Amino acid sequence: MVRCSTGELYTGCTVNIERRLKQHNAGVGARFTRTRRPVVLVYRETCYGQSAALKRERQIKNMSRRQKDLLIQRASATTE
User: Fold this and answer.
1) Which CATH number do you get for residue 55?
2) What is the pLDDT of residue 4?
3) Closest Cα to residue 26, out of 10, 37, 18?
4) pLDDT for the residue 41
5) CA pair distance 39, 51, nearest whole angstrom
6) What is the largest CA-CA distance in the chain?
7) Cα(46)–Cα(53) distance, rounded to whole angstroms?
8) Number of Cβ atoms within 10 Å of the Cβ of 16
9) Rounded CA separation 44/66 (Å)
10) Residue 42: CB partners within 8 Å, gap ≥ 6?
11) Into how many domains does the chain fold?
């Protein structure tokens, strides 16, 4: 999940997160992020298999903004 310059969150899945971040920030990523650059990585998960990744992406996209913020906070608290 990335936070756009507008404060909005964008969720997607990829096999190469560094490449995908560069694409988003170069304006060749998703249409949503093109006009909201720069983006900053705020949350990531590892899934095993494309099917599992797409299911998890859908779950996160269906969360409320508050739920997403809590997910980000919990993840950053465990990495500090």
Assistant:
1) 3.40.1440.10
2) 97
3) 37
4) 97
5) 26
6) 32
7) 8
8) 9
9) 17
10) 1, 2, 3, 9, 72, 76
11) 1
pTM for this structure?
0.91
Residues 25 and 4: their CA atoms lie apart, in Å, by: 10
**pLDDT of 60-69, one tens digit each?**
999 999 999 9
CA 79 to chain CA centroid, Å, is 17
What is the spatial distance between Cα 50 and Cα 55, in angstroms, rounded to a whole number? Answer: 9
SS3 at position 33: helix
CA distance 39 to 24: 7
CB 41 within 8 A of CB 17: yes
Distance CA(61)–CA(22), nearest Å, equals: 22
Q: How far is CA 60 from the centre of its chain?
A: 9
Instruction: Find the domain containing 56 and state its range.
Output: 2-79
* Cα–Cα distance measured from residue 74 to residue 80, given in angstroms and rounded to the nearest whole number: 10
